[in-house]
User: What shape does this take?
Amino acid sequence: MTAPSSAAASAPAHIPSPARRRGYILAAAVLLVMMAAGTLPIPLYVLYQKQMGYGPLGVTVVFAAFVVGTLLALLTLGDLSDHVGRRKVLAIAVICGAASSALFLAARGIEMLVGARVVGGLAAGFATGTATAALAELQPRGDGRAAALVASGSNMTGRGLGPLAAGIFGAYVTTPTRSVFWSYLGLYTLTLAAVALIPETVTDPDHAISVRPRLGVPPGMLAVMIGACLGVFAAFSILGFFSSLVPVFLRGILGVRNLALIGATSGLIFITAAVSQAVSAGMPARRSMSAGLSLLLACLGALESALFARSLWLFLAGTVAGGVAVGLIFRGGLTELNRLAEPPHRASVVSVFFAAAYLGMALPAVLTGLISELTGPVDASAYTSGAMAAIVVVALIVMLRAFGVAPGPQPTW
Assistant: This one.
């Protein structure tokens, strides 16, 4: 990490309460819009496959491109907003998102889809850590747990709404691969206007910008960070599976043809995750993580059983279980990191957490796509799920030893 900016620690003191409340709501809305953009193409992959002639491996390549862009932003510029201001980085994120939509509109082959997803990943990477840090600083009561809940809820709700909206376009609107992205370009215009109304919380940016990878963590947070990152890696491996391969599984294995239903099923796990976060808002981070990781094992078992038995209802049950598990793990990890991170380090700490999450989204999904070329999609999914179960067990052990042990910093306002 670069040297932290001291501005972020004391920034909220100068912001009037009404402006802080307005900014808090707008920052959550911006995060929701940006996260929806990341999952928007999911139901459309089956249409792109027909148009461009690529298979399941091509789907995972396009999906992995999004994660590459996200990790590039998180790992090289994850703390950029600590040094130039939250609002500027959010504006950069929105502009990258609009550029991604424009590339989708111009796409005639898989190469252009890959480019669109890389730029979209940059948008998500810039938005996640920045908006999460802004929410923590703009929370009207200075309540870190509430800010973490809103951040994770906006994140997951947005991810759920993306495939749901695109699925409706795919089923009921003419030329969905174009109309959905024209609509989103209009939404980006409104989002950019919302960014301009968010109060800046970094009052004296030092503009000390560096693009070297930022993989360090503040002193005293290593064990907690390992537990949180292993947990969110495992949780997001389920989301990666849904985001990259579920449309193919539903259409090719379970025989589902309606794109609205595919989009709703793809979004269900994200919406369930958002609901579980809200319902468990008062649950301590340690208990939230332990319950989520345990439930994630049940989810893996249910999903694999559904694929082997070709049972849509068992698949949906596993989806709901996975959504609850992801919500508990994501909120628990983010809450503990928000509790322990000093404000000057907050954006970079959250960025490391999200980097682990996006690695979880990419690696198992790509691994499943590669193995499926040799063994078929169902067997490939079983092999990947076995590896994920082992990671869940390790994450549970580390988390139980680290969470809830260290005291948090004293609030500065």
In short: The longest helix spans residues 222-252. Residues 1-11 have pLDDT under 50 and may be disordered. The chain has 15 helices and no strands. The CA atoms of residues 102 and 181 lie 7 Å apart.
